[in-house]
Amino acid sequence: MTNEGKEKPRFYTCDCFTTDNIFLEEYKLHVRFVSEQQFRLDYHALLKKLGCVTDEQFEGVLNKISQEVDRRKHLGVTSAQRAAAIKDIYRPLHPHVYHLQESYLTSEFKQIVEYCQSDSATEEGLLGLLEEQVAPRVYRFPLFDKSFCEDLMEELKHFEQSAAPKGRPNTMNQYGILLNELSFDEHFITPLREQYLLPLTSLLYPDCGGCCLDSHKAFVVKYDMNEDLDLSYHYDNAEVTLNVSLGKEFTEGNLYFGDMRQVPVSETECSEVEHRVTEGLLHRGQHMHGALPISSGQRWNLIIWMRASQERNKQCPMCNRTPTLVEAEGFADGFTKHSDPPQNISCALT
């Protein structure tokens, strides 16, 4: 349900964004950096065990962290500058892919959404329409028409080869595209979240904000034999995540899911999940997961981190503390200054 005419909430980030969950690719380690003294005390011994033995190697780590902290501090400004430059100089190859149309969606997915919107919808009934769970509370369904995926891939490739500036999706993915900077948010990602995904998540994940998703971060990640091959074990800055395989031709590179992030790795068994082109996977953001290496070809995935301010306003999922809010642009990290129901979403769906 939408409430047109009401003022939209302002979204914020948590101050931990510049200090927490900094990923060191070489050592497959997420770290927190407040000061060099704190970092040496917390991580020097661990990094030595992982192969960071010499003073030169440790200084290299500190330099990488310094660059990442600086990138995060200026992210809002640099992202807005990139978006403005893209709007000014980039000419889309397929303008139609920027506006969501029902014809892009599979008939199976539309039937699932229609059921979820009915008065008689239940979680049990929905599960009967979805494929068997591929891991605990991980659900797969055919989402996009193949021809749309092909057009979208051509558009993304066209943008990648253009002179327009590009930003990296996050600390862990070096190659990909931030879709808000390319103007996909307003007419594609937001209506997809509000009109089509919310009815599903309301039934599947009511315990973690699935009925009140009011913001998102959307991006495309790219895996290539000469670039990123895989994705290390991690959890998302989201209440619910949608992961869609767009293409192209590739072999291997399956996803794998462990347990929720609170469960020690030593007590976790992972389930491998095949990710098929045009299909979407829904899972809880705090569900630990990763991507195995591709062995040939190239793979592009659409990722939507969907957020519920009512949940994250209580506790930041990235630092486990009450969030200290910092002003930011757009949807930021999905925090708001109040815990009232989101103004454009009804949480009556259960």
UniProtKB/TrEMBL annotation:
Keywords: Dioxygenase, Iron, Metal-binding, Oxidoreductase, Vitamin C. Pfam families: OGFOD2-like (PF25238). The keyword Phosphoprotein does not apply. Residues 214-308 form the Fe2OG dioxygenase domain. GO terms for molecular function: dioxygenase activity; iron ion binding; L-ascorbic acid binding; oxidoreductase activity, acting on paired donors, with incorporation or reduction of molecular oxygen. It comes from the Eukaryota. Its cofactor is L-ascorbate. The keyword Metal-binding applies. InterPro entries: Oxoglu/Fe-dep_dioxygenase_dom, Pro_4_hyd_alph. This is 2-oxoglutarate and iron-dependent oxygenase domain-containing protein 2. It comes from Pundamilia nyererei.
